[in-house]
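Final report, Chapter 2: Outcomes

The project's central promise was a pipeline that accepts a single protein chain and returns its three-dimensional structure in a standardized token representation, suitable for archiving and comparison. That pipeline is now operational. To close this chapter, we reproduce one record exactly as it appears in the project archive, with the input sequence first and the structure output second.
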Amino acid sequence: MTFSVPFIETGVSGRVPFRKMFDNKIDAIQDFNKYKSFSNVHHSLYWFKEKEEKFNRDGSFERWGPDYNSAIVDKICFDLDSYKTIRIDNDPIEVYTDDGLESIRKFASWCNKNNYMCEYIFSGGGFYGIVKSEGESLKLRDGMLAVAVEVGLMIDPATIGDTSRMRRVINSYNFKEHRKLYCIPLREEELFLDFHIIRKLAEKPRFRDKFVYGDKSFGLHKYKIDEDKIKKQKLIISLKQDKNADEILEKYGWKVTEFCEPIQHVLSMDYVGHSNRYELIKYFKSVVNMEIEDTVNLLASLLKEEGYHSFIEGQAKYVYTKNRVFNPKKLKVQGICPINCYKCQRLIHI
């Protein structure tokens, strides 16, 4: 449904629900200000023109929240991480890489060259490169991909074109382990300092500072709207809970026993959480090359109630609409996929 006012979300770590929706900036600011002295606080990247019902895992109504497909894309935020997670003796450890700093410098050069209106923010761990934009939200993913390739940015693939993403509130404290710094705006010249000096700057907030450069907007107009995305957004999927997994997979020439061992391990878990259900859906889409309705029904057949929850949450519709591709990275971090195995990458359909 469409309303006369736009909506924004706040996110607070540890709060239930994590997300809350507001129809004005003052109430949103007052909301996260209540938590920022002791919790990580975020807000949505965009305002949204429409809202919709959000559901709990049991299918019951949870709250009203934004329809993420109705985002007002007046800016694009490139999330450029400076840390990655590796596993040593099966323990996850964060290590610093130069990717984030190199990418934000390239981003600044690109903005300067084109006189784009932009801001640079240090999140306490990595960087946000924000550029003013104009165009349809359905063109966002293709636009971001084009910039990433042209400029040479190292972006987390999961953030590309994702209108539901949040960013850390400027001048809030990053309580994450190994961070313990403020999220601060940066001057352009400060991007060329050493990383440890930028961290030093972030030991205190910059409440009165806002550094904006350029005056032009990056246009998404030249990018083609993917009509297939529009169809999938409007798609009505039929859930057939009596469907048999073998029957569904037969038309694709697959059997459950032919899934790789890590995927079979996930399917055998006592509880398959929200994040891992996304990975299963991406595997069925990218590796098995399944159609969206078969994926929904396969998950319901294999996971029963959890598969039904996935259907209620619209997980498959999101993965297929955004054209998410399976990448074993998340399962590797969990220790489910072997670090050096990339067999599934040879089977992926894009």
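Archive annotation: The first strand starts at residue 2 and ends at 12.
This record, like all others produced under the grant, will remain available to the consortium after the project formally closes.
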